[in-house]
Write a structure and sequence with these properties.
The chain is mainly beta. The strands form 2 sheets. Strands 1, 3, 7, 9 and 10 form a 5-stranded antiparallel β-sheet that branches. The chain has strands spanning 4-7, 16-27, 31-44, 50-51, 67-74, 79-87, 94-99, 106-117, 123-136, 198-200. The chain is built from no helices and 10 strands. It is elongated, with a radius of gyration of 20 Å. The N and C termini lie close together (11 Å).
């Protein structure tokens, strides 16, 4: 399998640069949940380790060294939320899950990227198995009457994102090989209900 890479891998030229990929998605109004899931593998030669809180807008401050980031922006590119902003050299596949139901009824931009400031070490990030799961509100249980009525099933809105996919790096570079499987659960549903399915953000 392949993953998306942003940033400059070991051995590349150390130049000031932004490297990113994004997708606009519309989350329907009235959904019960909207969950973003993905795996990320960070690597950085920067001596300084950086992490920003979710409420901090990194676009409003001068970059302080290299950074790997995942942002929620509006459809025009304005900042809404910081999901991830770090300079990490963990070199481990890490699973992330974020609730985006607060953006129901809006079109948002999911923005993955890496910033290199051109000095010090090189920084990159690999991202894999990205999905956005949208679950609609279940309709109310109909009141029994002498004439049976048919319950309306939940709707399912497919969404699609392009994922750029370079070959998986080899272990000799210190970059990722295989990642763990995405955690799964088997929810228990009331009789007659349908389970909403994950929307895979495919390449």
């Amino acid at each position: 399998s392949r993953s998306m890479r942003t940033g400059i891998p070991p051995g590349g030229p150390n130049v000031q640069s932004y490297s990113s990929a994004y997708q606009n998605v519309t989350i329907p109004a009235g959904v019960a949940s909207a969950t973003l899931r993905f795996w990320e593998y960070p690597l950085s030669g920067e001596a300084r380790r950086l992490r920003l809180q979710a409420g901090v807008n990194p676009l409003a401050i001068a970059p302080a060294g290299d950074a790997q980031y995942v942002l929620v922006l509006d459809a025009e590119g304005g900042w809404l939320q910081t999901l991830l902003w770090q300079a990490s050299d963990d070199r481990l596949w890490t699973y992330h899950e974020f609730d985006l139901s607060a953006y129901a009824g809006q079109t948002i931009r999911l923005h993955f990227g890496t910033y290199n400031d051109g000095t010090g070490g090189l920084t990159a990030m690999y991202v894999d198995d990205v999905s956005l799961e949208i679950c609609p509100e279940l309709p109310p249980t109909p009141t029994p009457t002498s004439t049976p009525t048919r319950e309306r099933a939940p709707f399912y809105l497919p969404l699609l994102t392009k994922r750029y996919a370079p070959p998986t790096p080899t272990p000799s570079t210190g970059e990722p090989t295989a990642r763990p499987n995405t955690p799964t659960t088997t929810p228990t549903l009331p009789a007659g209900r349908r389970l909403c399915l994950p929307v895979i953000l495919k390449q």
